[in-house]
Amino acid sequence: MQNARDIKRRINSVRSTQQINKAMEMVAAAKLRRAQASVVASRPYVNKMAETISRIVARGVDISHTLLESRPGGPAYLVVSADRGLCGAYNANVLRFAREKIAADPGPVAVVGRKARDAMTRQQQDVIAQLSLIEAEPCYEDASNIAEPLLKYFDQGVFGSLHLIYTEFISPLQNRPRMVQLLPVSGFEPASMPGQALYLYEPSPEEVLTSLLPRYVRSLIYHGLLESKASEHGARMTAMKAATDNAADMIDKLTLSFNQARQAAITLEILEVVNGAQALEG
Q: Where in the sequence is the domain holding 76, given as residue range(s)?
């Protein structure tokens, strides 16, 4: 049986770790509330922009744009992960999903996040861009900085299509990897147009579409960054809560072992005193 002093030292160590885990859980919960609000606010904007583009395309106007045209060449992928760990299976899930998609249809990769960069480098993938966030929390400028080189690569014919792989936020306890096509911009067939109301566009439908399409691509990237960050905070909060609970269970078990060791030591001392007294009487 371990010495009571060693067990006491382990209890103090686990209790210190528990306090750190609890603090990280609270920080992640605070960040999650802000990230979740950003995700909820972003969804209507992206949906309304897609609806506007659908209406313009559905008018039957002869519109040609480089972002709408299919190009020869294979796919490319933009993979979004976290920079840090301690967030459960968040990184493992999105990277495993990305590996499966890339293996099914190989192509170059652009990465956001240190975990994705390291994983793709280990797998010897063709990494064409390593992108990072300006701040810890995503902003629209991040999406613009990420989109610009990829739009140039698409225009130069480096790849024929671009797909965004990120983690969709469902709830603090649930998220799932997802892949959406960024380039060429698609999904705006007339049959899918919501409603048939008449709209007037100024200066013209062509110019409005030319302005909207790059913004739509940036908005999709920005929305993916927000979803991924909210998923990361939710996964980290859940992981730290589980770690805090496990630490509490471990403290209970160590406390029981400490009491047993102390009781054994006390019993041994009593036996020594009794034996000594008996020896003196003999």
A: 22-239
Q: Please name the residues in contact with 25: beta carbons below 8 A apart, sequence gap of 6 or more.
A: 237, 240, 241, 244
List strands edge to edge, sheet with 75-80.
127-131, 109-112, 75-80, 161-171, 174-183
Structure tokens at 104: 């099914």
In sequence order, the 6+-apart residues with CB closer than 8 A to the CB of 132 are 83, 112, 113
**Domain harbouring 30, CATH code:** 3.40.1380.10
CA distance 223 to 179: 13
- 200 occurs within a structural domain: yes
> For residue range 88-112, what is the model confidence (pLDDT) as tens digits?
999 999 999 999 999 999 999 999 9
Query: Which residue from 77, 89, 10 is spatially nearest to 256, judged by alpha carbons?
Result: 10
Which residues, at least 6 apart from 129, have a Cβ–Cβ distance to it below 8 Å? 110, 111, 149, 150, 153
From CA 113, how far away is CA 93, in angstroms rounded?
Answer: 14
Indicate the pairing of strand 161-171 with strand 75-80. Answer: parallel
pTM of the predicted model as reported, rounded to 2 decimal places? 0.86
In a domain, 278, yes or no: no
Total count of domains within the chain: 1
